[in-house]
């Protein structure tokens, strides 16, 4: 059973920064392409950043240049550094594989005030 535990969210003003973490247990991590997703009420969950096991990354256009995804395979942890946050970044953020494991974590709430 894979478990995903996200943390690091909070309330910040526009222009601020946050660093999210996601610890994975019970799954094969190092070879997995991992993603950070976000979801707002009434909308589908969207992937905002992806990282391969070797560290190659790509980003949604809406976050490119502001968010940085990274991973520590030894710690089975994936990170999302978020800078210059905007109110439209407000969402619950989740991590999972790009081809998701069936179970999702609780996510971590990010709220950006204007």
Structure, described:
There is one protein chain. This protein is 0% helix and 50% strand. Strand 7 and strand 8 (77-82) form a beta hairpin. It has 114 residues and is mainly β. A 6-stranded mixed sheet has the order 2-10-9-4-5-6, with no helix packed on it. Strands 1-3-8-7 form a 4-stranded antiparallel sheet, with no helix packed on it. It is globular. It has no helices and 10 strands.
List descriptors:
114 residues; mainly beta; six-stranded mixed sheet; four-stranded antiparallel sheet; 10 strands; 0% helix
- Strands of the widest sheet, in order across it, are 2-10-9-4-5-6
Tally of extended strands? 10
Uncertain runs with pLDDT below 50, 5 residues or more? none
Helix percentage: under 10%
Percent of residues in β-strands = over 45%
Largest β sheet strand count, sense and barrel closure:
6 strands, mixed
Order of helices and strands: EEEEEEEEEE
What is the CA-atom radius of gyration, in angstroms?
13 Å
Computed structural class: mainly beta
Summed over residues and divided by their number, the pLDDT gives a mean of 96
Apparent shape: globular
SS element count, helices: 0
N→C terminal distance: 40 Å
Oligomer: single chain
